[in-house]
Amino acid sequence: MKRNNNCTVIFQAVETRAKHERREKQQKANLSLSVKEVWKECTGISASGLDRMEWTSNFAHHIKALECDDSWNLEFDDKIDPKNPDPGWRTFMWCSSAWFKCSGCKRSWPSNNVMVAFHMRLMDKEGTVKVKRFRQSCKICSNAPMETPDISPENIDILMEKLVQHIEAKCYGKVVNFGSGRSAPLKVRNKHEPEHCEGCKAGVCRRGGI
């Protein structure tokens, strides 16, 4: 009987330890989630939805500084052609820095050659900005899809500042001091590869840099 009791105690101790290890493993897994994944878990809003909120709220902040009576809206549109805007639309392009993540192998890589195109129009006191973020594909995976860049809030802020300056100049005819502000660069070890860059294929990328 004593031996059975000892076995029971040992079994309970092992089971308790196993539960503790499983709990620790789950906690570590939770901690490994990215901020955007945690946000999705808590709110149900996807990473793309959170990204869209970052862009639109930042744009609203900068456009408010114009103190104009017109309403402005920003939307993403991957179909716009930066070289051939529709009649009545003005264009602006900027080279930013961002991270990419392959949806296949999950590899991540930084780039300082991330082109962003804007088309803007003001009509009947309603302004619209269309945004196209040029993508890149994984150089390791075969037939890898083009991935959307993950641009930091800091660089989104720089993009929106430059965008609103161009709206002032092109839609309101104001004289604007554009300054020399540049996107915050990332540490990149590999050279830019045009065959994996959507901007290069479209002929709008700042080729050859890193």
**Largest β-sheet summary:** 4 strands, mixed
Tell me the domain tally: 2
Shape: globular
Number of strands: 6
**Gyration radius from CA atoms, angstroms:** 24 Å
**Average pLDDT:** 82
Specify the helix fraction band. 25-40%
**Euclidean distance between termini CA atoms:** 74 Å
Give the helix/strand class: alpha+beta
Give the strand order of the largest sheet, numbering strands 1, 2, ... along the chain. Answer: 1-4-3-2
Number of helices: 5
Q: How do the SSEs run, as a string of H and E?
A: HHHEEEEEEHH
Q: Tell me the strand percentage band.
A: 15-25%
Low-confidence stretches: 25-33
Subcellular location: Membrane
Main location: membrane
GO molecular function, one term: zinc ion binding
Pfam families: Zn_ribbon_3CxxC
Write up this protein.
By secondary structure, the protein is α+β, with helices and mostly antiparallel strands. The chain is built from 5 helices and 6 strands; from the N terminus they run αααββββββαα. The protein has helices at residues 2-31, 35-43, 47-64, 153-171, 198-202, and strands spanning 71-76, 90-101, 108-123, 126-133, 136-137, 146-147. Helix 3 packs across helix 4. The longest helix is centred in the first third of the chain and has 30 residues, at 2-31. The chain is globular. It holds the Pfam family Zn_ribbon_3CxxC. Residues 95-203 form the 3CxxC-type domain. One of its GO terms (biological process) is protein insertion into membrane.
